Amino acid sequence: MERLLQTIRSYVPLRSEEDEIVRALFREKRFRKGDHLLKAGKVCRYVYYIDKGLVRYYIDSNGQERTNYFNKEGEFVCDYLSFLPQSPSGVSIQALEDATVYFISFADLPHMLVHGLTAVYMLVTSVLLFRGR
Asked: What's the pTM value of the predicted model, to 2 decimals?
């Protein structure tokens, strides 16, 4: 969680009470090598922050997997084109090694706005916007 808070603080200053809100909204999850954070055809319901590990973002084209890019420790990962409209994804996100992530759900993201964390909300969603697919 400290790496996530440091990443956020590198863009946006946080007061201690705001740290606590971020801690409450993001949850920890572990994935084993080969596990999927998202499979094509499913709706992307989470934004993940990679605390430890490496993941790939790929598409399956006629049975051939094509990796579009990788995300490493200290980065956010999500299929923006599925997450925001809550529609089925055309991509998969897979752990290439054991990974520890912190995630926030689509349903919980607006709570940042309710708690006055507009800048953090903008940071998380703008990271997604610039990554696209």
From this structure: 0.89
